[in-house]
Amino acid sequence: PLTPDTLLSTAMDEPLIEVRNLIRSFDGRVVLDGINLTVEKGKVTAIMGGSGCGKSTLLRHLIGVMRTDSGEILFKGKDITRFDESEMEDYRKRFGMLFQMGALLHSLTVHDNIALPLREHTKLDEKIIGMMVKMKLELVGLRDFERLKPSQLSGGMQKRVALARALALDPEIVFYDEPTSGLDPVVSGVIDQLIMDLSLRMHITSVVVT
Hints:
Layout: E1 15-26, E2 29-40, E3 44-47, H1 55-62, E4 70-75, E5 78-79, H2 85-92, E6 95-98, H3 110-121, H4 126-139, H5 155-166, E7 173-177, H6 185-202, E8 205-209
Parallel strand pairs: 3-8, 6-7, 7-8
Antiparallel strand pairs: 1-2, 1-4, 4-5
């Protein structure tokens, strides 16, 4: 099981997220065993461990798609485990998510993949959305790729498009679920550096499962 001493995090003095004594079991098997974790605003926090130890389970609790057996998950002092549907929807608009395999919609262009959260959660004009898509692609080093389909891109480029989509709503936090999974060491290094650079330049809080 994932236990407190398997977590890595920097020293904290301005917590954005606090996990207190989080416990979760499945069919009697304890997977998260009294987890305590503090995520500092504007920093990169890594959650590290071997395959199957509970990293992704913890991440699912942090984004509110899985309920705890016991314990608290505080976002700016408010316990998300007690949020109603409306409060949870508001919380989810404040973070971006980079999924392990990117989770791009292959029937859509790069432009439309990134524009999707803007169209779903804002009332912005299409011209403004188009400008924002270009800005996000510029941030991840993929200028002028918006008309391509994901299948026309390399694995590393697909991850960068997925990151641009995660940044679409200018989130306070970005959660990364094994962002370099399936990539070669050189491309993995590029993605890692991009995460660090974006966190510094945009003052984004990053939580990386790896």
